[in-house]
Amino acid sequence: MGASHSREELISDSDEEEYEEEEENYQDSKDDTPERSSSGRRPKTPSSLDEVAAKLEALKLKYPTSNTPNASLKNAVKLYLHIGGNTPKAKWVTSEKLTSYAFIKTAKIDGQDGAEDGEESENEEESGDVWWVLKVGNKIRVKVGVEMQLKSFGDQRRVDFVAKGVWAMKFFSDEEYKSFVSKFNDCSFENTYKMESNDANKVKVYGKDFIGWANPEAADDSIWEDAEDAFSKSPRSATPVRANQDLREEFEEAANGGIQSLALGALDNSFLVGDSGIQVVKNFTHGIQGKGVYVNFDNGNQRSGLNSVHSTPRKALLMRAETNMLLMSPKTEGKPHTTGLHQLDIETGKIVTEWKFGKDGTEITMRDIANDSKGAQLDPSGATFLGLDDNRLCRWDMRDRNGIVQNLATSTPVLNWTQGHQFSRGTNFQCFATTGDGSIVVGSLDGKIRLYSITSMRQAKTAFPGLGSPITHVDVTFDGKWILGTTDTYLILICTLFTDKDGKTKTGFNGRMGHRVAAPRLLKLTPLDSHLAGVNNKFRNAQFSWVTENGKQERHLVATVGKFSVIWNFQQVKNGSHECYHNQEGLKSCYCYKIVLKDDSIVDSRFMHDKFAVSDSPEAPLVIATPLKVSSFSISSRR
């Protein structure tokens, strides 16, 4: 697939007439024509004008309508349905030449009721479990929210959205279009935060320093433009990033089967983590290739209870110049998260020990682990790493408290908690990542994103409010200037730069951001692509391309959703004058991307290290893994 906007053609008036006639024939064929009674006899001739009027009304005759709606029809729209998916026969057809919409507050999202715009039953209001629902004619009834993937086209007075299909509504005036978008945003806010959409409540949700997130038109976007200028001055800028770059598949090969995750290396090898072991592959400038050593999880020292990793580890983390790997055990012993991990010596192919997480003599659990910094896996002497649980953020040391490597001949060794904090309530941490200098970004269940400096894990320097959707994965650039959060239905890109009172530019990791906080930008699939990806497929593991050197800038972003690997041009996303942002309402959303479609659900999509980028390509190869295959793609410019 190419850029998705190629499938969002204008809905022209000439097309409408053709499709309307086609749709009208279908509608007529379904109408009951009461020319004969059930007994087959002709009805009696009517004896009065009233009877004639009644008979005509019963016929439900259809007459051509003009482009001007019936003045008595409130919230009138034209409704279109997209058919044909992404096939050559794909097109928009008119579903209703003239219909109306209403926003209804109800508990019956999928049911039917006759409530008018804004009405609700007394019992529903008392129950407290009510939602705003969009109802269009008798064909659409859907809960208002980000799951609809609503996309607006101001120049066409049109909105597209997903509701058990892909629909478009066209409005008859600019005022009606703007009224719908405003009401939709208000209903979405109330459904998300359970409070009325007004200025006071927006301050409660976002905070006065982040009010630009609620009113993007009033936000200061100059930081984005400054950052874009800095991007053009970074190394490798001689290789321009163009919108017409192509993805070319270099090769694809079968794996040993059951791939569950990728552990890409920046040196000689990368690793495919599977159901029963790890396959070692070679790194090349055109991707990863070759079936090297296969390490079974049940190799090595049986004393460590290695059968417990015979099912796939939750996480594989490279360390010590990529000679060692930490494997988070899936065995939880009845606890919500992992109680320990295994350390694999890659050079010998043996698991050398099993570690337990503990603090003050008590065994604890971890949700996730990460390297101390972006390039820490290249440090040959590395002995520490970071851990995250729902209400914990800490650093673990594989040495004892005196800095001496522990005696592994003893019973299961316990990792040393060297730094961190246990929060007393409600942080609900979900994921985290580190910058080049070791600063930490943490994503939470409530959508908040917190920034911690390298000196303290107790209190965040900056806490972004989020937009109501849980952050399931987070990444950050090497320089800490940009954060990429993953939610089920969109990606959120945040600029951490701000100017302090002395006029110095800093990141939110190093100081508290004041009132001049730029609004974030969203990266979304079009409603059509979202529908094609499947109702149960969600965004996963969005990441920047990979650099580990000061002064270099990441150039692409990639995320996985179902069988799609979706790639955005980073510079294009940051460009505020990009065509994608024209005529948009609310937060700027970028829909210009490329899609790689695979035959199976994608396990992971990641760019190799920047060192593997060749001279005629602006980016290192992209590696895409499915359970049974691994593919490598290069990015080249059209000539």
TrEMBL record:
On the tree of life, the source organism's domain of life is Eukaryota
A Pfam match: DUF7135
Basic and acidic residues biased stretches: 1-10
Q: Which GO terms describe its cellular component?
A: cytoplasm; nucleus
Bias regions of kind Acidic residues — which residues? 11-26
Q: Where is this region: Disordered?
A: 1-49
Q: Which residues form the Vacuolar import/degradation Vid27 C-terminal domain?
A: 267-582
Q: Could you tell me which residue ranges the DUF7135 domain spans?
A: 38-207
Q: Which residues cross the membrane?
A: none
What name goes with this protein? Protein CYPRO4
* Source organism phylogeny: Eukaryota, Viridiplantae, Streptophyta, Embryophyta, Tracheophyta
